[in-house]
Amino acid sequence: MTGPSRVASMVLTALVDSGAGTLFAPQARALTGLDDRSFEAAVAELDDRGQIVVERHHAPDPHLQGDWRSLSLLRPGLARAEAAAAGRACFDRWVREFLQQHRCT
To answer: Which domains does the chain have, with CATH numbers?
Structure first.
């Protein structure tokens, strides 16, 4: 099996460089500088190759519209369920912090 494409490698690098190995899709896209089409192709490639876990999250607040997918690196020895849990933990942490600080006006 050949390695990931250049654009997929850019997404992997962003996840590795994050330290935690998990980013929201818009964060990863911004870090790579890829256009939407290239980014989505890279995410699909990495998901198909089993190198990342993509989790879709639904925000509990109507003001939180957007792309809330988390991308988690599937590191050697890490079970898919553990990578998915890391994505959920990242999302839960962010939502908790946001809702503690956000005030509707």
So the answer is: 6-101 (1.10.10.10)
